[in-house]
Amino acid sequence: MTEPVLHLYDLGPEVTAFSTTRHGGVGTGNYASFNINYYCGDREEDIVANRKALCQLLGIDAGCLVYPHQTHGDAVAIIDRQWMAECPQVLSAELGPKGCLEGIDAVMTNLKGVCIGVSTADCIPILLYDGAHHACCAVHAGWRGTVKRIVQKAVKAMASTYGSCPQQLRAVIGPGISLESFEVGDEVYEQFAQAGFDMARMARKYEKWHIDLWVCNKQQLMEAGVPETGIHVAGICTYIHHDDFFSARRLGINSGRIFSGIMLER
After folding, report:
1. Which stretch of 13-27, 79-93, 156-170 has the lowest confidence by average pLDDT?
2. From CA 259, how far away is CA 250, in angstroms rounded?
């Protein structure tokens, strides 16, 4: 077991934000070597070992590592003290988060020392931080979630729950598939067009249509009021850099997932 290697983001001195890489951990094959996602076919004993390693690196108990079972929807869950008390499954490293956050694609919290996050392998992870109210959110935006404008719904949820002002938010758009690698059929292009996206800006046609999910989500953040200067785009294409970050399009769906997490410091 080697320590997990994290790709870190600078959102401020009182918050830790990161995406895991494929380096460190104990996984093998297309799960090599660091995966903590329970829903992609990996060996449970490897997931448990990797979860423990990440918790040790972050300095938290196993029950403070929280992530959902995503279904490409737009539901946002609040991780508060009541949720932590009513969902004891997360207190076990062996059970992990199964059954606690079914059908959720964004999680937010203002609890210190609780690491929330989302899993991706070409989809777009987005981390939001409100330094004024010391709250954060992790968003999974695949193409379906992007069409449903999940990141804008997450910004609104933070505003209604914590009083977050969009103009004060800082955001990270983490590793995901790039326009050059994200080839889609006409039916996917039409869903974006019918949802009102500026396709001249967000799509390009080679032999088939390609869509820029980074730009789509950055534009949504800006429309929601987040200043462009507060948005960091990692610019890492998972399809191209599949040796360092998991890519379902390159490795198949039976492969590991990147975990993009954010944690308010104690």
Report:
1. 79-93
2. 18
Strands 203-205 and 209-211: antiparallel
pLDDT at site 64:
93
Contact of 31 with 42, CB cutoff 8 Å: yes
Where does 59-106 have alpha helices with state H? 81-86
What are all long-range contacts of 51-55, with beta carbons under 8 Å and residues at least 24 apart? Answer: 51/93, 51/96, 52/93, 53/1, 53/3, 53/4, 53/24, 53/25, 54/4, 54/20, 54/259, 55/93
Does residue 184 contact residue 192 with C-beta atoms inside 8 Å?
Answer: no
Distance CA 207, CA 198 (A): 20
Contacts of 183 (CB under 8 A, 6+ apart): 206, 208, 209, 210
Residue 136 gets the label, from left (phi > 0), alpha (psi -120 to 50) or beta, of beta
What lies within 8 Å, CB to CB, of 99 at 6+ separation is 89
Provide the pLDDT for residue 141.
98
Q: Which residue is it, tokens 């996206």? A: 197
Count of CB atoms within 10 A of residue 247's CB? 26
pLDDT in tens, 47-103: 999 999 999 999 999 889 999 999 999 999 999 999 998 886 544 445 455 567 999
Q: Could you give the CA distance from residue 203 to residue 108 in angstroms, rounded to a whole number? A: 30
Q: Tell me the helix, strand and coil percentages in the chain, rounded to 5.
A: 30, 25, 40
- The model's pTM is 0.96
Q: Which two tokens stand for residue 5?
A: 């290697």
